[in-house]
Fold this protein.
Amino acid sequence: MNMTPPNQEGTKEWWTKRYEAFQGYLYGKGPSSFLVENIELLRKGETLDVAMGEGRNSIYLASKDYQVTGIDFVEPAVLRAKNLAKESGVNIETKVQDLSFFLVPLMKYDTIIVSDFHPPVTLFKSLARGLNKGGTLMMEGYTVEQLRLENAYKPEPFECFKPNEALEYVKELHLVLYNERQISPKEARVQLIARKPLR
């Protein structure tokens, strides 16, 4: 039995209400600038976009010939992703999936991306196992420092990464790129790209 209050921050019901209350695209239609700037570091092939939201990054990757599956646990967001893919003339696979209990299938993906989502611990630990040898993981999100910045976007505290937290979950991967700092006056981010060893 699920004892979590339905309106608690981060629940499916909470996110559904948040999306339904916003008529446009909550995070816009354009892809993450970090993804665009570093796409050459990502391995092309079967790609998983975890917590894809409305699909902005999935659609961008599909436009660059990645074979993308996007998953999210909020149905209104997935429906918007499907519409955005159609509008953009690309094909992506989409799935409504409870991320609290989702484990990435073993060695299935060439690239996995996680953008502006703080995975549950079990999912966090399964990201590396879901990569093929030589596969790449891209992660980005706000750090707790974001909550202290003046006149800046304030994410929910549960969405933010603690200092060095992201590093704890990529120990078995080779770090290609890593930033954890205030990248602009209004943004404090953690950003990483890591690669699974070939042997």
